[in-house]
Amino acid sequence: MRSIRRFLLAGVLLVVSTVLAAGTLVGYLDASHELEELFDARLAQSARITQRLLGDYLQQDKTLPAGDAVYPDWHVNLPADHSDTADDEATPLGHEYESKLYFQLFDDNGRLLLRSPEAPLNRLVPLQPGFAVGRVEDHDWRTFTLQDSRTSRWLVVAERDDVRGELASKLALRGLLPPLVALPLLLLLLWWLVRHGLRPLRLLTQDIGRRHPANLSPLPGLEVDELTPLTQELNRLMQALGDALEREQQFTNEAAHELKTPLAVLRIHVENALHATDTGHREQSLHKALLALTRSDRLIQQLLTQARLDNQQDIERTPLQLGRLLRDTVAGLAPLALEKGQNLSLNADLEAPFEGQPVLLGLLFGNLIDNAIRYTPPEGTINISLTAEHEHYLVRIRDNGPGIAPEHLPRLWERFFRGNPQQGDGAGLGLAIVRRAAGLHRAEVRLHNVPEGGLEARVRLPRGPN
Questions:
Q1: Cα separation of 276 and 339, whole Å?
Q2: Starting at the edge strand that comes first in sequence, how are the strands of the sheet with 112-115 ordered?
Q3: How far apart are CA 27 and CA 178, in angstroms?
Q4: Does residue 305 share a domain with residue 322?
Q5: Which of 233, 389, 419, 430 could form an SS bridge with 367, CB 3.0 to 4.6 Å?
Q6: Tell me: the pLDDT tens digits for 220-262?
Q7: Structure pTM?
Q8: Are the beta carbons of 266 and 259 closer than 8 angstroms?
């Protein structure tokens, strides 16, 4: 599993190591360049001093020494071991690096006049003023050639090139040493910092882990900007889960309460049919049992529909035509109106393009029209119309039934409330379904009695995006 802590530690360590390595490399290259310039300056200065000393030497002693080597005691007091593996440290007698410096003095014709005791007899480089590189005994030598304008003599001062490389390597290693020593300490500090920084997340995890599954109370707020959105979303999720569980419990209680009576009635009628002694009583009991079964089926369907709508937070909208949907809904309910001899009319000439959920809109209009049919007396009239307003579509469903008592109008949206329990066989869930379906479409539904008698339902749906 991926670990944020390991990712942060590895990432920071990689970045820090890369930056330190790059900085050390740049420092090494820069130090090497500056060191080369310093060595060259020192070599040129040594050449000018040596030139002056050799000039004085030739003026005082006109005879050249045997083998051309002057100052034979130059390196006498140095440590005996001058090998490359010697401990290159300063001593009271000098430094071992002195044996890696020498000079040659030539006349204008290129004849060797003087040299240091360990200098070779052959020229290292051509006699040209300035810096150059020569090779003697498997070693590269950095040289500086200087010509005396008065005597036309050429002086070549040389220094072993590996001395410079050795010093540059030591400087580079010493430059790397502090970062290498500091890296473990830095890693330890980073580990502590990351652990301390992730502590609020660990506390949040522990708080959630200690909770009982039934405890859906909000999590305590953490004073951490990065965790505040997470805590808010978790609280929102637990609130939604709590609401869903509450709706489920409410649905269970309502279903148990509402189904108890029709099932008891159904049981009584079936028992009466079983104990009936003649065919007439048996058929009458079976007919009543069928009515009770029909009512129970309708109640179950409405309860399931209401439960689905309660758990639905949003809908998937599709383009549709409200006029066509109304015509299909009216056509499906027309047989109920014809059975009661009612006049069911629809005035919806425009197509009314709309975006919504066809099934839910069918439930919305179907329940309103079904209620009008059920509570309107035989031979009654039910008029349905669709008009377009500036920003809304308006659907009116008007009947000439008994209407609703004014004191009952505010309670019509309550579940299982029936304004006229003596009429119809509804369960009191139709308008609750209507209200929920309308809310999911940002629609507005209002019911009011009309002065001429009857009830009118007005559904106002937004024409634009909703």
A1: 31
A2: 112-115, 101-106, 154-160, 139-147, 130-136
A3: 13
A4: no
A5: 430
A6: 766 677 777 777 788 888 877 777 777 666 666 656 655 666 6
A7: 0.46
A8: no
Q: Where residue 291 sits, what CATH number does that domain have?
A: 1.10.287.130
Strands 130-136 and 154-160, sheet pairing: unpaired
pLDDT in tens, 135-191: 887 788 889 999 988 888 899 998 888 777 777 667 666 766 777 777 788 778 888
The whole-number pLDDT of residue 138 equals 79
- HSE-CB for 451 with a 13 A CA cutoff: 0
374 contact partners, CB below 8 Å, separation of at least 6: 336, 423, 424, 425, 426
Q: How many CA atoms lie within 13 A of 327 on its CB side?
A: 11
- What's the pLDDT at 82? 45
Q: Which residues have C-beta within 8 Å of that of residue 219, sequence separation ≥ 6?
A: 204, 207, 208, 231, 234, 235, 238
How far is it, in rounded angstroms, from Cα 190 to Cα 193? 5
Domain count, the chain: 3
CA nearest to 143, candidates 94, 100, 84: 100
Per-residue tokens: 465: 């995006």
Establish how many alpha carbons lie within 13 A of residue 439's alpha carbon, considering only the half-sphere containing its beta carbon. Answer: 12
How many CB atoms are located within 10 Å of the residue 342 CB?
A: 21
- Domain match, 366 and 425 both: yes
